[in-house]
Amino acid sequence: MAVTLQGWTPEIERSFKETLFRFLEEVNSTKAALYLLAPDGAYLLATQYGFGRREALATRHDARSSLVLKAREIRDKPLIVNHRDESPELFDILNTAGSQHMLLTPLYGDSRLVGFVDARDKGRRRSFVDEDEKMAQSIAADLLKLVRLTGVIEDFAQEAPPESVMEEVSPALHLPAPVVAVGAVLDQTGLEQLYRCFTAEVSREPEIALAALTIADGSGVGSKVIVVDELGADNMDPLFHHQADALRSKGLDPPGPDSWSVQAVTRDDQRREIGPQVAGAAVLVFSEGWAVVVGAVGCSESGSVPRMMHRLGRRAREISTQSVIRYSRNRLARGLLRPPGREFIHLERHALSVSRLSWLTARDLGLPRVQCETTALAGLLHDVGMLDLDYERLYRMKAPGPNERQTFRNHVIEGERIVAEAGLGEIKNAIRHHHERWDGTGYPDGLAGEAIPLLARIVHVAEVWNVLTSSDSYRRPVTPERAVETMRSEGNRQFDSRVVDALIRVV
Fold it and tell me: What's the pLDDT score for residue 442?
């Protein structure tokens, strides 16, 4: 994107791009462009699908442009144009682009236009219909949630957080509610990050006697509790009561006491008098059917409880946003493997197997969890370039000629291009180099040894194992024992032997 929005990053663009892709999947438009409100009042191109480099797609629409005025006029109801003569205001835009069909979908929130989607030209030259309008409204609602969650538009972030549930054990104390991540996603990586932040935040406040981070999903509740002293231990049951009240404040029914699983950790602080106390609880992250709640007991006069809860609330929002981005990234990857109207069952099975093996191998090698996930993503998309290279004919070809072999080799270049254009730049090197060999005789660049990116080395080993052992392979599968012998014999020739050893430990 030539111009940027507030806090815009490639990771955030991925999440918007994945949601925008639904216009191609569910509405069957061939093109879609998302514009978002900038601080100067213009609408900037945030991301797009399907528009070619030669097409006249504006990167910016001023507040008085015909497209913006029309989006404001229709407010939250999409506009269907099935012939450019139907909308004189949009005639020039459609005529210049050579398009007849448009589905203009506003993103309207807080009584203002925060963005819009310009979707064009339904597949097979079909007209847009009422069902497409309903689908567009649903996608627009998800885009609006993403705008709020990521904060890319000024003054259009999270909804006002709910009041925290408090019990005052001392004179009155106002507890500001933390920033709440609404309609959020919290994956395993995010949950681990939140636990670490919780522990760190409690440690920063010496006058907190007890704190609990609780996850409730409707069927059970799990809590991580930090007990600082005996006074904190005496308040554990009341604190869980406050957390249950906080869940009820969000319309969630907490399970009974027998369903609460508690992991308690005692902090070795020097004993001290905390003074008059206050207990409170607030929901940090919630979505349909589940929530994360924080609660604490501490000195009312020092403000330790509200400070800790407010800081943790802000971190919870950041962590949830990153979880959403990872979730969107993975959905986008699945979308790349399943182009609209096409299905590649064998390729998808192979990709999923290589992805799983890549993740297990990266974990065994001691890579950080985030890098393990990136390796798994590279494994999922390692052969995505095949989809643009006559895949149906090349797959399972038993005796390819020189031309077919060269076409096949080009899949790593095509794959690199596809993932880069999709905003998945962190895996493009792994895609490009996953057929390099340790001895330098691979392709496309003849890299050798440590010059080959580690993620590419991992994916290469995982792919070969799957090709050797899978019943879906283009060659007759061998036993795992025979595959181990074959791969070990190629250590430090075709493969990095350290990676081979790691894979053998996990299969």
Answer: 95
Q: Is the peptide bond before 444 cis (omega within 30 degrees of 0)?
A: yes
Enter the pTM of the model: 0.55
Predicted local confidence at residue 181, as pLDDT: 42
Query: Closest by alpha carbon to 347, among 254, 476, 467, 247?
Result: 467
Tokens of 253: 């029914």
Coil/strand/helix, residue 173: coil
Confidence tier at 122 by pLDDT (50, 70, 90): confident
CATH for 10-150 (3.40.50.1100, 3.30.450.40, 3.30.1330.40, 3.90.226.10): 3.30.450.40
Model confidence pLDDT, tens digit, residues 295-348 = 888 877 777 888 888 888 888 877 887 777 777 777 777 777 776 666 677 778
What is 343-506's CATH number?
1.10.3210.10
The predicted-structure confidence for 222-238, as pLDDT tens digits, reads as follows: 666 666 655 555 667 77
Encoding tokens for residue 407?
């076409």
Q: Three-state SS across 370-426? A: HHHHHHHHHHHHCCHHHHHCCHHHHCCCCCCCHHHHHHHHCHHHHHHHHHHHCCCHH
Query: How many other CB atoms are there within 10 angstroms of residue 44's CB atom?
Result: 22
Q: Residue 162: what residue type?
A: P
Q: Please give, one letter per residue, the 3-state secondary structure of 207-225.
A: CEEEEEEEEECCCCEEEEE
Please state, in angstroms and rounded to a whole number, the distance separating the CA atoms of residues 355 and 379: 4
The dihedral built from the CA positions of residue 61, 64, 66 and 70, taken in this order, carries a sign that is: positive
Comparing CA positions, the residue from 426, 341, 427 lying closest to residue 384 is 427
